[in-house]
Amino acid sequence: MSLVLGLLSHTLSTVLRYSGLRRGCHAPRRGAMEQEKALEVYDIIRTIRDPEKPNTLEELEVVTENCVKVNEIGEEEYLVVIRFTPTVPHCSLATLIGLCLRIKLQRCLPFRHKLEIYISEGTHSTEEDINKQINDKERVAAAMENPNLREIVEQCVTEPD
């Protein structure tokens, strides 16, 4: 009987370890994977150009490595959360920057994802309104139908030669 219980215990332990259901077994690997994905996201968005200036969002510190968080929400599916910081609290182009972030990531992310983009809390005078706009699929689609706006977004997200 004790032999059977020992084998059953060992088998259950093995199944739990490989399934990721037992806390601690895959947590370091999962955290490392999420960090790797976050760096991959940052590498994509850091080269987006500012709509007004000749600088990238990275150079202006609108985005940093710390502004990107990635969490696994399903098998091979991730929640990507970006919190960017406009250069000034009344930046009139914050919505456009958020749109550029969204478009570039929708085009370039090589893994399944859900995307949430926000202005860092307390860094813009109308952050709540802008957050709603840049996370509303219908508003994003409508904005990209405007040829002038689409051209500006394309200029910002296109990689320099």
Describe the structure.
There is one protein chain. The chain has 161 residues and is α+β, with helices and mostly antiparallel strands. Helices cover 50% and strands 14% of the residues. It has six helices and three strands. It has helices at 2-19, 27-45, 94-108, 127-134, 137-145, 147-157; strands spanning 68-74, 77-84, 112-119. A three-stranded mixed sheet has the order 1-2-3. α3 (94-108) packs across α6. The radius of gyration is 21 Å and the shape is globular. It starts with a helix and ends with a helix. Mean pLDDT is 85; it is low at 16-27.
- Strand residues, percent: 5-15%
- Our measurement of the CA-to-CA distance between the termini, rounded to an integer number of angstroms, reads 71 Å
> Helical stretch count?
6
Look at the structure and give the mean pLDDT: 85
Shape category = globular
Sheet bearing the most strands, described?
Answer: 3 strands, mixed
Which consecutive residue ranges, at least 5 long each, have pLDDT under 50?
Answer: 16-27
Structural class: alpha+beta
C-alpha-based Rg, rounded: 21 Å
Along the chain, the helix and strand elements come as: HHEEHEHHH
Spatial sequence of strands, sheet with the most strands: 1-2-3
How many β-strand stretches?
A: 3
Helix content: 40-55%
Summarize the helices and strands and which ones pair or pack:
Layout: H1 2-19, H2 27-45, E1 68-74, E2 77-84, H3 94-108, E3 112-119, H4 127-134, H5 137-145, H6 147-157
Parallel strand pairs: 2-3
Antiparallel strand pairs: 1-2
Helix pairs in contact: 3-4, 3-6
